[in-house]
Amino acid sequence: MDEAWRRRGIATRLIDALRAIARDRGAWVVYVQADPPDAPAMALYSKLGTREDVCHFDIAVR
After folding, report:
1. Which long-range contacts (CB under 8 A, 24 or more apart) does 38-44 make?
2. Which residues form the N-acetyltransferase domain (predicted)?
């Protein structure tokens, strides 16, 4: 994302709207993924939720 649009609360408001939709549909969690090199995303998601360290595997389909 362009630096000029960061730190304005846009992503937080979008996630809050998604939380409301998810809650209304009976979901218990919103899952997001971020890669450690993406520091802004990691910071945002860490502020909003609980971090889980998991292994992700990409398996080629050939």
Report:
1. 40/1, 40/6, 44/11, 44/12
2. 1-62
Q: Is 36 contained in some domain?
A: yes
Rounded Cα gap, residues 39 and 7, in angstroms: 13
pTM of the model: 0.73
* Domains held by the chain: number: 1
Range of the domain at 13: 3-48
pLDDT tens across the length of the chain (62 residues): 577 887 888 999 999 999 999 999 999 999 999 988 999 999 999 999 999 988 989 999 99
